[in-house]
Amino acid sequence: xxxxxxxxxxxxxxRHLDDPEVTWQQVKRQRNADGSESSVWExxxxxxxxxxxxxxxxxxxxGMIVRRHGHFSPHVVMILExxxxxxxxxxxxxxxxxxxxxxxxxxxxxxxEGAVMFEVMMGDPRSWGEQPELFERAxxxxxxxxxxxxxLEYPDWLTDLxxxxxxxxxxxxxxxxxxxxxxxxxxxxxxxxxxxxxxxxxx
Length: 203
Description:
mainly beta, single chain, RmlC-like_jellyroll, 203 residues, 12 strands
């Protein structure tokens, strides 16, 4: 994925989901109880370095689970088709979610029809995970297991943080400020919290 600088661009850029350069990337995957695999698939429509931002079109396979996480920048999500659980809140098509920097949501669990989303990260688009026990519980309830991440086509100015478990506001000595390289800090693991199990999807 090539990056573009808005300071150099003087004309609008138009892309279509079917353009050859807008390719699907398999961002996350899991093995389900029946042996099948589910994934999160993304098409990165715009990925800029100066200023940093990312817009993407995402498809969640039915039952796909993504850890509770936040991003190193403000993040907005619009559910276009299907629906998903974000923690204990069911979000059908038409739901708009605003995630400020430092906030987290999830675990995310796609519904029986899967989910299609449009997302915008207004800054460093990478994520950090928190409360891994919630992710483990959601997987166990569904009999699923996470599979190793496949390699993504990152621009030169980004490194892969999909395995990072760290909450920026949890500990000031280990927090990752918005412009710091999170790879230079040791990931945090939060202490287990008592929470209610994820609800079963409404039929």
